């Protein structure tokens, strides 16, 4: 009788213990949680997740491409301030990209930032439409040259780089 009671009690406490352990485990790894960063307790792993999510050079380039096409439209509209605005944002976006991919810095400096970036900016700021289009063409050459230098020539063969004035 006593042995039976002991067995029942220990079985029950065992079940309670397992139940608690299961509850703790599910609270820790909720596969449907939205906190993909906060849930990662290991700091290195968390930073790696963020680094992966923020990608490399392709993602800033997508933005650069969009802003470049907006510059084209801005010049069609004689909106020199908007063209200058996007040109500044392009510089910032490429610089942010170089933070992620420092190996691309050499060509970015050589082809765009040493000289051409400022020239193009001055051309837009001149508010002279034919000079501004010349600036646009200089910008285009820099884009195309850097793609060639960085061995992604295939990027150049797309309608974005065939926009006419
Ligand atoms: C450092 C040199 C460099 C400069 C300057 C540069 N690019 Fe790029 N661009 C790249 C590289 C490298 C890639 C490919 C990125 C990759 O493979 O992750 C790329 C890719 C692209 C893409 C394809 C992005 C995609 O994934 O869809 C576009 C669009 C683009 N660039 C536009 C431009 C424009 C417009 C300019 C000029 C205003 C420009 N780039 C200037 C290096 C450059």
What this model shows, in words?
- Residues 1-23 form the signal peptide.
- Keywords: Signal.
- With 165 residues, the protein is an all-alpha fold.
- The chain has a domain at 58-162.
- It has helices spanning 2-28, 43-53, 58-76, 80-100, 105-113, 116-125, 129-149.
- The longest helix has 27 residues, at 2-28.
- The N and C termini lie far apart (98 Å).
- The structure holds heme C (HEC).
- Heme C binds next to α3, α5 and α7.
Structural class assignment = mainly alpha
Number of strands: 0
Calculate the terminal CA-CA distance, rounded to whole Å.
98 Å
Shape category: elongated
Write the layout of secondary structure elements.
Blueprint: H1 2-28, H2 43-53, H3 58-76, H4 80-100, H5 105-113, H6 116-125, H7 129-149
Bound molecules: heme C (HEC).
The site of heme C (HEC) has 23 residues, from helix 3, helix 5 and helix 7.
Task: Briefly say what this structure is.
It is built from 7 helices and no strands.
Keywords:
72% helix; Cytochrome C; 7 helices; signal; elongated; binds heme C; 165 residues; mainly alpha; 0% strand
């Amino acid at each position: 009788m006593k042995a039976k009671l002991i067995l029942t009690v220990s079985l029950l406490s065992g079940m309670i213990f397992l139940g608690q352990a299961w509850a703790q485990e599910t609270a820790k790894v909720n596969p449907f949680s939205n906190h993909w960063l906060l849930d990662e307790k290991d700091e290195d792993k968390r930073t790696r997740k963020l680094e992966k999510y923020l990608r490399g050079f392709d993602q800033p380039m997508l933005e650069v491409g969009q802003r470049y096409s907006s510059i084209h439209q801005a010049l069609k509209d004689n909106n020199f301030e908007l063209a200058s605005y996007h040109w500044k944002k392009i510089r910032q976006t490429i610089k942010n990209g170089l933070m992620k991919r420092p190996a691309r810095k050499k060509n970015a400096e050589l082809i765009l930032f040493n000289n051409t970036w400022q020239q193009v900016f001055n051309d837009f700021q001149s508010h002279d439409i034919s000079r501004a289009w010349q600036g646009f063409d200089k910008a285009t050459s820099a884009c195309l040259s850097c793609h060639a230098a960085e061995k992604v020539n295939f990027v150049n063969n797309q309608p974005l780089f065939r926009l006419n004035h």
